[in-house]
Design goal:
Layout lengths: L12 H13 L4 H13 L10 H8 L3 H14 L22 H12 L11 H14 L10 H10 L18 H14 L9 E14 L18 E13 L6 E6 L4 H15 L6 E5 L7 H7 L2 H9 L1 E5 L10 H13 L6 H17 L10 H7 L7 H17 L1
Parallel strand pairs: 1-4, 4-5
Antiparallel strand pairs: 1-2, 2-3
Helix pairs in contact: 1-2, 2-3, 2-4, 3-4, 6-7, 9-10, 10-11, 12-13
Length: about 400
């Protein structure tokens, strides 16, 4: 049974105008804004039918006790008192702000090893483990932290333990990585020269898929519906060339990605894509098939040597394929063309040819901004410790002299 109305609000025109002003000024604080909204909704001078506490609470989106406490305070002390409401010291919610020591322990827990059997930390899981921590540490006068408090501590420190990201993590103190990285970054700084063009190359496998059932087309009020069941039709390889200075992309699809397939695509680059170039600078990763040897596996020696002479190859470092601008090209064609089910290699080739023709009409240069200067700052851990290397050499010399 609904509680009978004990506290009545009948606002004058000036009072209502003032409370509306307070309400708009407090919108950043949901708690304060709700107090003023309760008064506006409870105004009997504006109600068509008299409302109960429960109806007011439902309309504002708060609990019934909140409505009663707000109306009680307003009728006794006025609207100014609503801005001074404080939480009870006996409430756990009063302990929202944890001290630096406890916050550090929460951060260490969230950044540490996940509990056995769990793939990731969640707020509920952290709440449970923090409760165990507080039970063991008797220096705190409370034994529980609300998950919202833990969430705010993580937010203040920009931590999101429920997320992760796959990333190419470069090695540390790796001179070979540094040498190849700076070599590639030097290439990207070159000015455009049509006689000495720069091209980047990469390849990706692609799974051919067909729909087990015909999709339902989009219509007004409904998006396209695609059945979750599909039919596998094998895999193919998509080869992608991109010219950073113009943004032009050239692609080819093959049933396999062997050394012979790669060599044929390189011949296509030399003889068809850039036949007038005096020298082609080619940037690519160091896959085992990406070498002059593949040319000799595919063409007569004279032809293989002719193609090799036309190329100036620069390899990205191991575990540094992100330095290959061709990965940007693959991302573009995947997002715009391949991000769907395509059932056969013939349809795939047709679709990619149509996309390539349209894309290259409005292609834009790749705005590569990562430089050697930035690399020496951001990836300083990758660079070898020169003093350490020299000290190791001197140590070996001394050992050799002693021997």
């Amino acid at each position: 049974m609904a509680k009978s109305q004990q506290y009545h609000v009948a606002l004058s025109q000036d009072e209502r105008k003032l409370i509306k002003h307070y309400y708009k000024a407090s919108l950043k604080s949901t708690t304060r804004a709700n107090r003023y909204k309760i008064l506006l909704v409870s105004d009997e001078n504006r109600q068509k039918t008299k409302m109960t506490y429960k109806e007011i609470a439902a309309k504002v989106g708060v609990s019934e006790p909140t409505v009663i406490n707000t109306l009680k305070l307003f009728t006794k002390e006025g609207v100014e008192a609503l801005d001074k409401i404080k939480r009870s010291n006996r409430s756990n919610v009063a302990n929202l702000k944890v001290d630096g020591d406890l916050e550090a322990k929460i951060i260490a827990m969230a950044c540490g090893t996940k509990p056995e059997g769990y793939a990731q930390w969640t707020l509920s899981l952290l709440e449970e483990y923090v409760a165990v921590l507080l039970e063991q540490d008797k220096s705190y006068d409370f034994d529980h932290l609300d998950r919202s408090t833990i969430g705010r501590a993580l937010l203040r420190n920009q931590l999101r333990p429920h997320l992760n990201k796959y990333w190419c993590i470069p090695p540390e103190n790796d001179a070979e990585f540094v040498a190849r990285m700076e070599d590639v970054l030097d290439v990207y700084k070159r000015q455009y020269d049509p006689e000495y063009p720069v091209w980047c190359m990469d390849e990706k496998p692609y799974q051919l898929l067909d729909d087990a059932r015909k999709p339902l087309p989009m219509r007004i009020g409904n998006i396209e519906k695609i059945d979750s069941e599909y039919v596998r039709d094998g895999t193919v390889a998509v080869f992608c060339f991109i010219q950073p200075h113009t943004g032009r992309i050239v692609q080819k699809v093959e049933e396999t990605r062997t050394a012979v397939d790669w060599a044929e695509k390189i011949k296509y680059l030399v003889d068809v894509i850039a036949p007038d170039a005096k020298k082609i600078t080619l940037v690519m990763d160091n896959l085992n098939t990406h070498s002059d040897a593949s040319l000799y596996k595919t063409f007569p020696p004279a032809d293989a040597r002719r193609i090799a002479r036309k190329l100036d190859i620069h390899y990205t470092p191991k575990h540094g394929s992100w330095l290959d601008i061709a990965e940007i090209g693959i991302h573009i064609l995947t997002k715009q063309c391949l991000n769907r089910r395509i059932p056969s290699i013939e349809i795939l080739r047709k679709e990619l040819d149509a996309w390539e023709s349209h894309y290259n009409q409005n292609s834009k240069p790749i705005d590569w901004q990562f430089t050697i200067e930035q690399a020496r700052i951001k990836l300083h851990r990758v660079y070898p410790d020169i003093d350490k290397e020299k000290a190791a050499r001197d140590s070996r010399r001394k050992e050799k002299q002693k021997a």
